[in-house]
Write a structure and sequence with these properties.
The complex is a heterodimer of chains A (about 260) and B (about 280). Chain A is α/β, with parallel strands linked by helices. Chain A is about 35% helix and about 25% strand. In chain A, strand 7, helix 6 and strand 8 form a beta-alpha-beta unit. In chain A, helix 7 crosses helix 8. Chain B is mainly α and about 280 residues long. Chain B has three domains: about 30 residues, no CATH class; about 30 residues; about 220 residues, MetI-like (MetI-like fold), CATH 1.10.3720.10. Chain B is globular and about 75 Å long. In chain B, about 35% of the residues are buried. Classes of the chains: A alpha/beta (about 260), B mainly alpha (about 280). Chain B: This is NitT/TauT family transport system permease protein.
Chain lengths: ~260, ~280
């Protein structure tokens, strides 16, 4: 097995058996690898099994076929160096932002003074250093999602799984979060698997865009995005960007049966 | 909980930790204290208005005193025998509170057992629903056979009534934890105990308190029904005695006291809720 990948998805399939005995294949023959520190976007239409893929990689669900290796080791639930950001920030309303960020460490029983300092640094990094003792209801949706990102990073993950993290945000907030996540990614150096159904977002952020087709979810294309970094707003309107976006879009059109 | 258009389907029915463009600006607080003072004044005016209409109807229709009396007669009755009413109120209150406390403890325990054990759920849930269909007051004679004519039988009737809303609400509340949080806990290998203490039970508190608000009024009713059947003390006994003597002022006085203590207990539970769940007021 190859150890040089942060994550290896080897011929992974996932089939649910429904109550009437019919098989529902959600993922089939997925095969891709992520190098350490790489930012990979996964795009596909709703229902193409993107979320199932992330849950399988995080160890929350087992694949019915194939295997997933993290740094060459088979994954299992509660792998220490994986963290997840969900579409909804789901912060605990009775905890202030700092305590929300520290929640994963409390789960693990490793909340220390040093960890608290790191959590404060993370909040500082996302521009919420002065809101550490505030509560989520005092924050906007974008700020809440930033806290949720800090909560994911507080465990020093090597792999960050993001499941449409900015899907519930308005377009302008989403753009600024896209710029911010690039900065966070550069600072932490972790690998990112970023699920989205926005093609511009996928292209703007990623080193590679993996296009997942639906019914069953399978890889339709794996597009290298060689735009220079750091990518600011100006890149979204560059010809090179449009070219990549158009290419990605063409694969999604094919899978949806639109010619 | 308002389902605004920018909240996705997935987000509905969970305590809205607001996401989305509508929440982009930090929420501005409306002076909550002024609001509650205004509400209290309105409530008092409403109750006084009700008394006024009642008194007016009695004055105009002038019914015989064995059919209907006005609130003034009832309050005069209260003022003339304060010791009698206080003593009996205290007894009913004790029975109701004991039943409520016991019903709450058992209800929360039972609701938690239903949530955490599929075995218990599959065996116990149908049985509980079946028992719940029995009007609990119908059990009162049985409790008197079991626990005698004293304090205990009334407390157990109150408990039987107070129990079910708490079972259901605890069970629902524990089930309302967003699946993302459960996944977050699993990814970080949280022990079952930590999940309960740090997330699940705190999430369930608002729901448990709603159950408690229903139960506290029901518990007072349960105690009174117990006293109807076999009581020599308490407001239920006061009502039965007044009934046999066609003493309507005394009967209405007891009604007013019952309403007052049920209301007071309800607000106490509500107040406890505000202290325990301060975040709930902001996330509506």
């Amino acid at each position: 097995m190859n150890n040089e990948y942060a994550i290896s998805v080897n011929n992974v399939g996932k089939t649910y058996r429904s109550r009437d005995g019919a098989d529902n294949t959600v993922l089939s023959g997925l095969d891709f690898h992520v190098r350490p520190g790489q930012f990979v976007s996964i795009v596909g239409q709703s229902g193409s099994g993107k979320t199932t893929l992330l849950k399988t990689i995080s160890g929350l669900q087992d694949p019915t076929e194939g295997e997933i290796l993290v740094k060459g080791r088979p994954i299992r639930e509660g792998l220490e160096d994986i963290a997840m950001v969900f579409q909804s920030p789901v912060l605990l309303p009775w905890r202030n932002n700092l305590d929300n960020v520290l929640l994963p460490l409390e789960f693990r029983g490793t909340r220390t003074e040093e960890a608290t300092r790191y959590a404060r640094e993370l909040l500082e990094m996302v521009g919420l250093g002065d809101r550490a003792t505030r509560y989520s209801y005092e924050l906007s949706g974008g700020m809440q999602q930033r806290v949720a990102i800090c909560r994911a990073l507080v465990t020093h993950p090597e792999l960050l799984l993001m499941d449409e993290p900015f899907g519930a945000l308005d377009a302008m907030t989403r753009d600024s979060m896209n710029i911010e996540i690039q900065r966070i990614w550069r600072n932490t150096g972790c690998s990112v698997l970023f699920v989205t159904h926005s093609i511009p977002e996928a292209v703007w952020l990623a080193d590679r865009v993996v296009v997942v087709g639906d019914r069953p979810g399978r890889i339709v294309a794996d597009v290298e995005i060689d735009l220079p970094r750091p990518r600011g707003k100006e890149h979204r309107f560059s010809p090179a960007f449009s070219e990549h976006a158009t290419e990605v879009e063409s694969y999604i059109g094919v899978t949806a049966g639109i010619s | 909980m308002v389902a605004s258009p920018d909240v996705t389907q997935k987000d509905r029915g969970r305590p809205a930790v607001a996401a989305g463009p509508a929440a982009e600006r930090p929420v501005r607080r409306r002076g909550p204290r002024r609001d509650s003072v205004t509400a209290a004044v309105k409530a008092v005016v409403g109750v006084l208005g009700l008394f006024a209409v009642w008194e007016l109807v009695v004055a105009l229709a002038d019914p015989p005193e064995y059919l209907l009396v006005g609130p003034i007669s009832a309050f005069v009755e209260l003022a003339e025998r304060p010791g009698y009413f206080a003593e009996n109120t205290f007894i009913t209150l004790q029975e109701a509170l004991a039943g409520f406390a016991l019903g709450t403890a058992l209800g929360v325990l039972c609701g938690a057992a239903l949530h955490y054990s599929t075995t218990i759920r599959s065996f116990l849930y149908p049985a509980l629903i079946a028992i719940d269909t029995i009007p609990k007051v119908a059990l009162a004679p049985l409790f008197i056979v079991w626990f005698g004519f004293g304090f205990e039988s009334k407390a157990f009737v109150a408990m039987a009534i107070a129990f079910f809303p708490l079972v259901i609400n605890t069970y629902d509340g524990l089930g309302s934890v967003p699946h993302e949080l459960q996944e977050l806990a699993r990814i970080n290998k949280a022990s079952a105990w930590k999940r309960m203490a740090k997330i699940e039970f705190i999430y369930a508190i608002p729901s448990i308190l709603s159950g408690a608000k229903i139960s506290i009024s029901l518990a007072v009713g349960g105690a009174v029904v117990g006293e109807f059947i076999a009581g020599s003390k308490g407001l239920g006994y006061v009502i039965m005695l007044a009934n046999s003597q066609v003493d309507l002022p005394s009967m209405f006085a007891a009604f007013i006291v019952l309403a007052a203590i049920a209301l007071a207990l309800f607000f106490l539970v509500d107040l406890a809720g505000r202290k325990l769940v301060p975040w709930k007021q902001h996330t509506r």
